[in-house]
Inverse folding.
DNA sequence: TCGGGAAGGTTGAGACTTCAATCATCACTC
DNA sequence: GAGTGATGATTGAAGTCTCAACCTTCCCGA
């Protein structure tokens, strides 16, 4: 059951053996990599991978600041999740909130110097971890292929149509 | 910072532009797909994706039962996480625990009829969701490539050596 | 300009995960 | 057969995420 291989009239198209293998491999790889990087960063930077990603986005943004919804969108998460995360990072002194002059509802998340420093200190170790787990194991063709595939999947999950169920609009 | 493109003496090999794009695409796709399937299953089956996966493993196992550590290993998660999860699924009546006769420390997680029924009822919708998000969007070559790549990554993250930091041995 | 819906963001409760500590049993050795 | 370390599994607390409810401000048409 689940992804079984069967065949009958009005039944859904179950995954065949190869598809099941591919899907299992996907689940295994993503689960393990997620766990691996979360652990690496928790140990070396004191925060989970997704939080680290937030700091990276802020560091790359003009003025090292981003509107909350924009940051949520770039990170593919909900605004609620982001609110909680920023609250935690603020407590650490790595991010600070600033009001938006042009829209009084708006808030900026701003990377502090301390936040930048954490990034500066831990980025080398993290990029190494990513290389070891991913890039170092794949041929250039596989890297290219992976990029294309992941872009297709990501695109498919964020349709342009109005009313789409996107995390940052939830 | 984070995956910046720089060059100097003893600095780590930062990700180049294409690598950064690939990595971003990977993060976006996995985050969105995880969210998407979690939501689909929470809505239709009343449990998160990983819990659903546990039921699927049990359904496929002989006697519809698996030792805790074995189930954790197949699911790539920690035993602690599994303990909590099984406790919840037990409360739902979808899984029951049984002692292991040959090793009094051991426990079996056993899929109940009610658990099997949930699977029977929700599997079609789930496999459809997976197809729509993943397989339907990829060419056969891309599917093959994805499977190979993910197997490489998964393999790389579970080294055979003793002392490896594997979730289910934590 | 008033009213109502949409957009930006936060909050608290409950659900889930992590981490370290714990307990019981097993396997091995002397 | 007693001691010791390893294995199988659980627990509770703290951290994180989801969901729904909420508040404020903006937008826009009547």
């Amino acid at each position: 059951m689940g992804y079984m291989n069967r065949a009958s009239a009005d039944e859904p198209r179950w995954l065949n053996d190869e598809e099941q293998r591919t899907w299992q491999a996907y689940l295994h790889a993503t689960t393990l990599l997620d766990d691996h990087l979360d652990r690496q960063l928790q140990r070396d930077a004191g925060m989970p991978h997704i939080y680290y990603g937030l700091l990276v986005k802020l560091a790359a943004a003009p003025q090292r600041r981003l509107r909350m919804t924009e940051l949520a969108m770039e990170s593919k998460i909900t605004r609620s999740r982001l609110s909680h995360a920023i609250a935690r990072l603020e407590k650490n002194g790595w991010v600070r909130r600033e009001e938006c002059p042009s829209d009084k509802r708006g808030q900026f998340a701003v990377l502090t110097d301390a936040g930048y420093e954490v990034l500066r200190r831990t980025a080398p170790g993290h990029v190494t971890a990513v290389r070891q787990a991913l890039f170092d194991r794949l041929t250039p063709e596989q890297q290219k292929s992976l990029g294309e595939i992941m872009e297709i999947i990501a695109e498919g999950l964020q349709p342009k149509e109005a009313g789409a169920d996107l995390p940052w609009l939830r």
